[in-house]
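Regression report. Comparing outputs from two consecutive submissions.

Submission 1:
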Amino acid sequence: MSSARIERYALLLISVFMLPTAVQATFAPRSWFDDFPLGRGWIAAEGGAYDEHLVRDVGVLFLALVIVTAWAAMRSELTRAVSVAWLVQGVLHLVYHVGHLDGLGAADQAALVVSLASIPILALIALWAGLARHRPS
């Protein structure tokens, strides 16, 4: 498979993985806070107070980044910049949550870490493929 396809598919997978989160937080913020993911309640389990404004802001930001990511992947433009953005977001998000796993059972802890790690891993794959694609022959 060509590096351009690897880059494109990795970015499109990030878009697909993040779209449900973005849509739910944007349009059903209370449900996202109480139930995400799939009724497991990972966010509410941390014990913080619900803030509709903050949840909607997070949802809209994710939605905007999903749109930019899908656009970049389909047009092969700015893919390295988008990959770096997801890498930064993904690593910092993962680091935070790894330090705050209290209140979740072992299965939820594992699922949370694996699901959060998937974004920076895919971003690294896209970045690697993008660098290979743009490397002088």
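Submission 2:
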Amino acid sequence: MIVAPLAGTVHPLAYADDPAFAMLGAGVAIEPSGSHAIVVSPVNGTIASLHPHAFAIDDGEGGVLVHLGINSFEHVEAFELVSKVGQVVMSGDPVIRWEVDATRGAGLNPVVVVVAMTRTAVIPTPASSVEANEPLFTF
């Protein structure tokens, strides 16, 4: 089970309008709700990669990528890291603080991508909106 890294409205992965994410695996896109978010780990595992706008968790099953916003690397001031590479995390543990409105204010798309890397399909939960740490999808 993969949980939502933040609150928002769930969409198909294509909603992110960036085909590069689909090449990494299967997943969903989340339109964030609220002006700021504490982004949490969607699975139990180890932080394998961490950038202000994205992180990957090694869960022993191919990993999960969380990417905050499209081209958000252009405005890293909106993010604050609260974890570090190599840290063991549990599902729901905070990883990044994000001022979502700062990303929007910079004219960037704040859609969040959650990809189960190496997976070819996921089964999204039936909910159209989620809160952080609620079930998002399964394999």
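Expected: both submissions complete independently.
Actual: both completed, but the second showed a warning that disappeared on reload.
Relevant detail on submission 2: The two ends are 7 Å apart (CA to CA).
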